[in-house]
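User: structure tokens for FAD dependent oxidoreductase, please.
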Amino acid sequence: MAHVYMYAQRTADDRIAFGGRGVPYRYGSRVDADGSTAPGTVRQLTALLRTFFPAAVRAPIAHAWSGVLGVPRDWAATVGFDRATGLGWAGGYVGTGVTATNLAGRTLADLVLGRDAALTRLPWVNHRAHRWEVEPLRWLAVRGLYAAYRAADRVEAATGTARTSVVARIADAISGH
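Assistant: Done. Predicted tokens:
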């Protein structure tokens, strides 16, 4: 079940923060207004949590929350600094935010200070991703890719193989992974 984004992390008070797999994309890059998590997403994540951690079958689900995940077209993070304007930027972490924000902060510090350092020579410095496709192609592609990845997860789970399915390899080629 590795193709549709999800995460699990132990909290400081020995609980499990478990998430992902929500609505993958809303037409026109819209976000929801109330921040509530769709009941279907909560059910799906609860079932997955209990599959991964059978001892948690009777554990109550304390909270559900939602957020926006901004994804660059090439799924590559970027850090940059424009010396002329004094503006810096960092983003596009796509699920690796905790580690990437730390590295981005250190990289930005070196860029702002004008240091020629190992961090300022990383490929993500001043990286520019291609623009996303126009609607409705973007919506159709994202929805289709998520469906393909869900199908790949089901095929791999049913066959018990650790080998990536053909469906996932095709979806990876289309998505740029």
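User: Anything notable?

Assistant: Residues 78-121 form one domain.
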